[in-house]
Please model this.
Amino acid sequence: MTDKKNKKHTRPSWDEYFMELADAVAKRATCDRGRSGCVIVRNKQILVTGYVGSPRGLPHCDDVGHLMKKVIHKDGTVSQHCVRTVHAEQNAICQAARLGIALEGSTIYCRMTPCRTCTMLIINCGIKRVVCEKKYHAAVESEEMFKEVGIKLEYFNNDIQPI
Model:
């Protein structure tokens, strides 16, 4: 039997800490197809959080079901996406706007590579670093956009989130 007193506590790195918080935020998400959350941080201080959910006042997927849209990709593959919800990154950026919090120079921690729309918002609001738990299946375009504008993109692992 291991004695707890003999085990040294290991503090998580800042990146691990903020990613764990993003995972906790994701528990508030209201669409079971993508329970995702994010945290936006500057100077090791949390500015805002966001999670996947319907716009204020509109029904949630968990309550009324999904609103699906078929997407045909350049390579001919077809996927289904729920369009009832706002992405975690979008909700966090909106929350910052509502509260008057500038995001210039901040870092965003999210569960997977942001989509094209979220990537454009991240670029325009001045976020300088993106840390993701894993890759999203269609991440190449977002990765290229971040690289082109000089935003640092890092992954905890190279696992790919399935469609």
Remarks:
- The chain has five helices and eight strands.
- The radius of gyration is 17 Å.
- Helices lie at 14-26, 61-64, 88-99, 116-124, 140-149.
- The chain has a mean pLDDT of 92.
